[in-house]
Amino acid sequence: MKCYLAAAAAALALAAPAAALADPAADAIGRYVAWRGGPAFEKARGILVRGTTDNGRFQGVIERRVEPGRLMERITQGSAVTHRAIVGMAGWTVTLSGQVEDAGEAAAKEAERRRLTTFDDALRSSKAKVSLEAGETFDGKTVQVLRVTFDPASRYDLLLDPASGALIADRTTEEGATTITRFDDWRMVEGVRVPFRQVQRTEDGTATTLALTEVDIDPAPAPAAYKRPASRRLYTFPAGRAHTDPLAFELFAGTRINIPATVNGVPAPVMLDSGAETTVLDNAFAESLGIKPTAVVDAVGTGGRDVAELASGVTIKVGDVELRDMTVALLDLKPIAAAIGRPLPVVLGKEVLNALTVQLDFADKTITFHDPARFKPEPGAVAVPVSNVSGLHAIPASIEGGKPVLMDFDLGNGQPLLVFPSYWKPQGMLADRPTSKGLSGAVGGIRPRTVASVKTLTIAGVTLRDIPAVFGDEDNSAFNTGHTSGNIGMPILGRFDVTTDYSRGRLLLKPRADAIGAPFPKDRSGLLTRMSGGVATLGLVPEGSPAALAGLKVGQQITALNGKPVSELGVPGITALRNGPAGVPLKVTLSTGETVELVLKDYF
Questions:
Q1: Is the pLDDT at 286 greater than 90, yes or no?
Q2: Quick one: CA dihedral 422, 425, 428, 433, positive or negative?
Q3: Do both 151 and 240 map to the same domain?
């Protein structure tokens, strides 16, 4: 899961010599540039704004600097703080809990697009295409649409009054999500027309109002604004200790790392998830502890997008180590818990991996937390570089012998492999292989997706074979960010002993001789169910699967498999029967009392 604060967008301002563009676009640009201030607007290269923010529940303040070659912004809204600076293609960002990370290439490119679209640079750059699109009706008015396209996933539309060139709104598409910002209270500042009121609305309906109190065109340089701050020390060990004892964890269904812990002193299991950009508490569990929301953010996962509340002042203790005063997200985790098949009060996110060196021994099912400064690796592990990519961490891997690409490192993903459309579509990966449909997702919901087998994946010098994989599409989910090529999950990572050593920019992977060559579990039934109240309901019956050939339909309820109630089997037991060897019969008892027999087989 990825979680972030949507920053109020600066008004886009575009200008270029009319002769360089087709006449219709040049006409629109000419009117717009004149309306924004003409020569003063074209000459401007930087802007500093300060103001207040309000999303209807929480208020805050904003400061943003956009200058040639660099950008800085600090936005607070309740307990949520977004603070980052980008200089060229490098920079830093501060997490919700005060840890400072490298911003990464994707964030730097987004900041570059922001800079280019602040004044006229986008139209003078070969990095963008400018076009005048068909007119639209917006808020009951006819508008011209002046579009700046950087790549298929990054598009900026200016919605203009056709007669005057006045900017009514902009529409920004980044990472598969579209945000619309309406502008009002225009004032002249140093000859440039600036909107002092902006209302930004995201696809999930969240609206944030920005009211400017200070604007400076081409502000004086302020190098201190871009200086990297110190990272907050999140963890404490008892005096004299540099690591915990090895702590036993439960590897639920072979894919979920559940660790005994306390949250604000209350015992609760936490599920370790390196793919969660922030720690998440189930909102009902948080309420039972008296934890109250203090901010709202957007959340994005493989299932789509959602809105999460934030709360601060949370302390999580695992063994002898404490993570103090964390800012966490609050979400309804019950749908994910139902899909996994066990309660899920807490998802422990990347903060613990940022703060500590974490050693996972999957053979003995133990986890050890180390002070990074005093950690000494064991011999025999392969060092794999790990990169921060838009707030998450990624490692290089080679798909079917191709050039190594970055893929998300995700201890919270219960599936072996996700392949993103930015990779598989240009490669034509689905052209000549059997495919089917599966159910996949987490934050944002569970939805049907294409599944197929990947022939090989090479990671840390080890080649794994015949891997069931989910192939995503361009939608409003984590599949469509385009920053990495896929996601490596627990059924692959659990075949190694894993040490995360982010402070040194690496993972240490040691292949497990007992697991590295084992076949991957794979559904051979087509019984894709959702559990509720001790009954498994068919949510999807893939075409050509044994379940489809046996005549089973979506919506039918299953009460027993091979005579054993599904309430006793639970999700792990049902999964084990679904993943049985080809040729094995499976008896399915429906809520009507009817029993249907199917024979397991490979259908994708």
A1: yes
A2: positive
A3: no
C-beta neighbour count of 515 within 10 angstroms: 14
Range of the domain at 321: 235-372
d(CA 463, CA 7): 41
pLDDT tens-digit profile of 16-50?
333 444 478 889 998 999 999 999 999 999 999 99
The total number of structural domains in the chain stands at 4
The tokens for 394 are 């990624």
| Same domain as 77, residue 13 | yes
Dihedral over Cα of 64, 83, 127, 301: its sign: negative
Evaluate whether 263 touches 289 at the Cβ level (below 8 Å): yes
Q: Is residue 90 part of a domain?
A: yes
DSSP code string of 323-376: EEEEEEEEE--HHHHHHHTS--SEEE-THHHHHSEEEEETTTTEEEEE-GGG--
353 and 285 in a common domain: yes
Residues 385 and 461 placed together within one structural domain of the fold = yes
The three-point CA angle 26-28-33 to 5° equals: 90
Cα dihedral sign, 188-191-193-195: negative
pTM: 0.86
User: Are 212 and 315 in a shared domain?
Assistant: no
Determine the Cα–Cα distance for residues 537 and 562; give it in Å rounded to an integer: 16
Task: Output the six-digit token pair for 461.
Answer: 């010098």
